[in-house]
Design a protein that fits this description.
- This is Pyrroline-5-carboxylate reductase.
- With 284 residues, this protein is of the alpha/beta class.
- It folds into 2 domains: 174 residues, NAD(P)-binding Rossmann-like Domain (Rossmann fold, 3-Layer(aba) Sandwich), CATH 3.40.50.720; 88 residues, ProC C-terminal domain-like (ProC C-terminal domain-like fold).
- 52% of the residues lie in helices and 13% in strands.
- Helix 6 links the parallel strand 8 and strand 9.
- The protein is elongated, with a radius of gyration of 21 Å.
- It binds NADP nicotinamide-adenine-dinucleotide phosphate.
- NADP nicotinamide-adenine-dinucleotide phosphate binds next to helix 1.
């Protein structure tokens, strides 16, 4: 497993087409622009003329409703439509890809086998699973490349996805389900933890506003400490848990109510749903 983080794209020599310009696409091309990619190197497509106009105005990039024109002008095509729209779009654009064009798909639950069925055996494809903190360039994304991808294709995919956070290569496509359980759905778990901490703080007498500020900053600070520290999270936890102290009482309650088993069950359920959705999509 290798990973990389945000990088300088001012000399990135390729044109990138985004098929779909919604939440995920705009997060990624927003990241590319902040990392120095020239606006004229990005073409986004949308279904409606209104979205097309809005994308052009908000980001200063090229935008069109013609997927064919965008693909013909691009070295790399990033598929950012909803999973249910992908089969039709993938089949339709396949004849319009430039020779050796890399296709990157962010669609949840669509596997490489389905993509190659729709786009041709020889298409280099990188499948990825990003998450919503990509919107502020704090994303975590798992990547898997098919055998048709050269090292250059992989480097290009990594440059694009690492413009919105960390990008981690997976050796097995099936690991996408675990990535879904850890990082793609993970922000929702942390939001739930935040909700619970804020409510408990209010119950103990803090105002909603104060409890919210303290809880959010605590999650941010703990994450930043975990990233920068030489110690792993278990050791960091031990270092704030003095024997006989206050934190220990809270940790004892979490452990006695089996918080680890709850997370394990929750993440198994998430990964199982990811497998079910992938199976349903591959039967398409
Ligand atoms: N959002 C996330 O957190 C997240 C995380 C991981 C993966 N993903 C994946 O990201 C993909 C996109 O999700 P999203 O949340 O960004 O969706 P979204 O905001 O609904 O955006 C969809 C975009 O696709 C465009 N579109 C629809 N049909 C099209 C067509 N035939 N040709 C070209 N463009 C078309 C839409 O254009 P109009 O505006 O004109 O309708 C819109 O710009 C999904 O496959 C999802 O699984 C999302």
């Amino acid at each position: 497993m290798t990973h990389s983080t945000v990088n300088d794209l001012s000399n990135f020599p390729k044109t990138i087409a985004f098929i779909g310009a919604g939440n995920m696409a705009s997060a990624i091309f927003g990241g590319l622009l902040s990392n120095g990619l020239a606006p004229e190197q990005i073409i986004a497509t949308t279904k409606s003329h209104e979205s097309c106009e809005r994308t052009r105005e908000n980001f200063g990039i090229r935008a069109t409703t013609s997927n064919h024109n965008a693909c013909e002008a691009a070295d790399i095509v990033v598929l950012c439509v909803k999973p249910q729209t992908l089969p039709e779009v993938a089949k339709d654009i396949a004849p319009h890809l430039s020779p050796d064009a890399l296709v990157i798909s962010v669609a949840a639950g669509i596997d490489i086998d389905s993509m190659t069925r729709w786009m041709g055996e020889s298409t280099p494809i990188v499948r990825c699973m990003p998450n919503t903190p990509s919107q502020i360039q704090q994303g975590a994304c798992g990547l898997f490349a098919n055998d048709q991808c050269s090292q250059q294709h992989k480097d290009d995919a990594e440059s694009i996805l690492s413009s919105v956070g960390i990008a981690v290569w997976l050796d097995n496509e099936d690991d996408i389900h675990a990535v879904t359980a850890v990082s793609a759905s993970g922000p929702a778990y942390i939001f739930l933890v935040l909700e619970a901490m804020i409510e408990a703080g209010v119950k103990q007498g803090l105002s909603q506003e104060l409890s919210k500020s303290l809880a959010i900053q605590t999650v941010l600070g703990a994450s930043a400490l975990a990233i920068s520290s030489e110690y792993d999270p278990a050791e960091l936890r031990k270092r704030v848990t003095s024997p006989g102290g206050t934190t220990e009482q809270a940790i004892n309650v979490f452990e006695s109510k089996n918080l680890r088993a709850i997370f394990s069950d929750a993440m198994d359920a998430c990964a199982n749903r990811s497998k079910e959705l992938a199976k349903a999509a591959s039967d398409h």
